[in-house]
Amino acid sequence: MAVDINDYTIIRQVYGGGFTRLHVARDGLGRRVLIRRLREKYCLNPLIRKRFNRGGSIQADLRHENIPRIIHRSPHGRQPFMVVEYIDGGNLRSLLLSHHELLEAHPLCMIRGIAQALAYVHARGYLHLDCKPENILIREPARPVLIDFDLAHPYRGRPMKQRKLSGTPAYLPPETLQWHRVDSQTDIYSFGIVCFEILCGRKPYEAADTRHEVRIDDAEPPPSACTYNPDTPPALDRIINKCIAKDPRIRYPSMSLVINHLNALS
């Protein structure tokens, strides 16, 4: 069924960065939805348009409580857009900047939710490739929701090489920064960096340019979350430390194993 942007009443813009605009809107029945559309100046860029539409197609293929549901997609018009399930909550970055009490009260709940979303994405045969606080919304009371699948890609279990580096350098592992190689380890490393931020309010590496600071052949181990947050349970610290190991051979082989270890925590 064809869907027109004019079928929705725009209430307000909630995000205007990057390649897209995100608006809160109402459908014909008065229900709130989110409308995500490609900015006009990027609509004629074939690479950006392809990424936007591929991300929408991948997200539409996913059904998980920690991933918002795609209600409608319009990939072929002058300005592609998608209608997404409404999420009433800010993103994790805003919580980190405001030192929100949720971070101290429910860190493990948030960490588990993000892990479950990524494990499901991998099980469905995809990589997210852009896991960071800006792409995680927080539903009340403390349920994370993974968004923005524009960089997501089908995955068949073998490492892939990107022609051009994509993603946010501070959340990318050394093998991606150095060799543009991506696989499930890319998401596992990004997940670990996000977990470190949830617990410590900062990244493990705060260099101006992470590409020159985190190398796979660097023998120095990643910092411990306990260094910046002494209240971090040692077992959780070990899980995160394993996720952000510089050598991918040291990291967890899968997100499902990460979840098993998280579930073993009291």
UniProtKB/TrEMBL annotation:
UniProt lineage: Bacteria, Pseudomonadati, Kiritimatiellota, Kiritimatiellia, Kiritimatiellales
Q: Does the keyword Transcription apply?
A: no
Q: Could you tell me what this protein is called?
A: Serine/threonine-protein kinase StkP
Q: Which keywords does this Swiss-Prot/TrEMBL entry list? A: ATP-binding, Kinase, Nucleotide-binding, Transferase
Q: What is its EC number?
A: 2.7.11.1
Q: Which Pfam family, giving just one, matches this sequence?
A: Pkinase
Superkingdom as given in the UniProt entry: Bacteria
The EC class name is: transferase
The record places domain Protein kinase at 8-264
Q: Does the keyword Chloroplast apply?
A: no
Gene Ontology BP, a term:
necroptotic signaling pathway
Gene name on record?
stkP_2
Alphabetical list of SUPFAM superfamilies matching this protein: Protein kinase-like (PK-like) (SSF56112)
Molecular function GO labels:
ATP binding; protein serine/threonine kinase activity
